[in-house]
Design goal:
38% of the residues lie in helices and 12% in strands. With 272 residues, it is of the alpha/beta class.
């Protein structure tokens, strides 16, 4: 596996980022997007056989991984390692024609046009079906990041699910907060310091250790006032459900891990 070119198949967000971090080492294959001005011109799949490929990465939607690998089956030799970049999809969705299959998944929401400033701080999850494939992935991932973790298909899917809760769902809650502020002409920017503080305070311990607010205190009077301010029934139900979970999952006061930082929040002053 000492060839010279990495092929990236796809035209989405991850292709945009990979093609930049890998630079001249890669070739992009797929269809050109309307907003691809200034990007590398993608080559048709059939032309990939003209390149001295060391590996192929399928940066395509999850439901296209199997079909894309089947298309490449008639073009590439079976010894060429082929990996997909999905957190939720098993490695065996890649055609069994290829001897070395696996996954390289960056734990980050990557948006086209928003360059990653520090790739070495971006965690990468890898998995491969063979030792040669694993050796290649470990070497490439170590060139890109200081945090590389080997997880099998089930572990990776579980982590992807956890990422949905900690990233996508949290962003949806931010949007509800934005709507609540906007409805009363309140600058959403006033919440940015507490949002950043909450995120930065996570240190790897169970987050319940740092939970604050009316729900964890069992402050039903404050929660009822909040509910009266919510106009949309689905938001009221969401508030009830999350508050119930916070109350049920709170740590007992004698838990040795429950060491509240006095600066965690303003709740002790009756503000939160």
């Amino acid at each position: 596996m000492s060839l010279s070119t990495i092929a990236i198949v796809g035209n989405g967000n991850l292709t945009w980022h990979f093609s930049r971090v890998l630079g001249g080492r890669c070739v992009v294959a797929g269809h050109r997007r309307e907003d691809d001005s200034g990007d590398k011109s993608p080559v048709p799949y059939a032309q990939l056989s003209n390149y001295p490929l060391e590996a192929v990465f399928l940066a395509v939607p999850d439901n296209e991984i199997a079909a894309a690998s089947q298309q490449l089956r008639g073009i590439l030799q079976p010894h060429i390692p082929i990996f997909h970049t999905s957190g939720a999809t098993p490695a065996d969705r890649i055609s069994g024609y290829f001897q070395h299959r696996g996954v390289l998944w960056p734990i980050r929401s990557l948006r086209r046009g928003e360059a990653v400033s520090h790739w070495r701080d971006l965690p990468l999850v890898i998995y491969a079906s063979t030792e040669p494939g694993a050796t290649y992935l470990r070497r490439l991932a170590a060139e890109l990041s200081d945090t590389v973790t080997w997880l099998d298909d089930l572990q990776r899917a579980q982590l992807h699910l956890a990422a949905v809760f900690s990233n996508n769902f949290v962003t949806a809650l931010y949007d509800i907060a934005y709507q609540l502020c906007d409805a009363k002409d309140i600058p959403f920017e006033l919440l940015l310091p507490i949002i950043r503080h909450t995120a930065h305070s996570q240190d790897g311990r169970r987050p319940a250790v740092r939970q604050t607010g009316a729900a964890v205190r069992g402050d039903t009077a404050t929660m009822e006032r909040h509910l009266s301010l919510l106009q949309r029934p689905e938001y009221r139900q969401l508030y009830r459900d999350i508050s119930r979970l916070i109350f049920e999952y709170r740590l007992p006061k004698d838990d040795p891990d429950l060491r509240r930082d006095a600066n965690d929040d303003l709740e002790d002053k009756g503000i939160a």
